[in-house]
């Protein structure tokens, strides 16, 4: 599934653990509920960037498009949930996003660059997780997730290209820093299943 996106695969530090894939398939309802939350949060992140950085023309354009797409995906997840009589409800967020964001530098433009690099990791990991789940999911969900791969990969590319554009220098050190943080977050066990959680913690 990911052979069409070699740059995305190379960007990520590791594959999703098999134990996480098994956990996801055992929690299909929770997967969809949390996926809906992820799409809503992704749209919110894009909008927040638009409000914060009003002088960045390319960012405004790409984040506007991204926000619209994420909200469409949110609506599509809700439709699948409705077809399956699954109620949309509040969930506590996983430690993944907060685990990445705690390392954001506080001065500009470093703050913007780190935020964009994190956005690239979130989108790339989402794409990878959808891809590994597709062969194992019911047809309706698998078809939907397959339709998301192209846009998630493009979102990854948009975030990374914006980080490169606005840094004015190499971002390789920060990319590698967050790569190791992401590896740790993906491989460390979690108690609660989420789209971006690690594998299940042993009882």
On the 0 to 100 scale, the average pLDDT is 96
- Indicate the structural class: mainly alpha
The ordered string of helix (H) and strand (E) elements is HHHHHHHH
Number of spatially distinct domains: 1
Number of strands: 0
Strand content: under 5%
* First-residue to last-residue Cα separation: 33 Å
> Which architecture would the CATH scheme give at its second level?
Up-down Bundle
CATH class: Mainly Alpha
Could you give me the name of the CATH homologous superfamily?
Answer: Ferritin, core subunit, four-helix bundle
**Which sheet architecture does the biggest sheet show?**
none
- The 3D shape can be described as globular
In CATH terms, what is the fold-level topology?
Ferritin
Spans of at least 5 consecutive residues whose pLDDT stays below 50 are none
- Return Rg in Å: 16 Å
Helical amount: over 70%
């Amino acid at each position: 599934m990911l052979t069409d996106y070699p740059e995305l695969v190379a960007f990520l530090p590791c594959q999703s653990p098999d134990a996480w894939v098994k956990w996801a398939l055992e929690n299909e309802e929770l997967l969809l509920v949390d996926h809906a939350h992820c799409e809503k949060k992704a749209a919110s992140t894009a909008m927040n960037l638009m409000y914060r950085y009003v002088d960045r023309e390319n960012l405004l354009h790409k984040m506007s498009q991204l926000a619209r797409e994420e909200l469409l995906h949110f609506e599509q997840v809700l439709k699948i949930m409705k077809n399956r009589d699954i109620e949309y409800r509040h969930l506590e967020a996983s430690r993944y996003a907060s685990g990445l964001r705690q390392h954001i530098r506080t001065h500009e433009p470093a703050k913007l660059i780190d935020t964009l690099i994190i956005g690239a990791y979130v989108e790339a990991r989402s794409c990878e997780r959808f891809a590994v789940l597709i062969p194992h999911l019911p047809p309706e969900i698998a078809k939907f997730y397959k339709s998301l791969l192209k846009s998630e990969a493009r979102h990854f590319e948009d975030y990374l290209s914006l980080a490169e554009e606005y840094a004015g220098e190499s971002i390789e050190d920060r990319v590698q820093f967050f790569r190791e943080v992401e590896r740790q977050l993906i491989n460390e066990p979690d108690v609660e299943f989420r789209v971006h959680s690690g594998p299940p913690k042993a009882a």
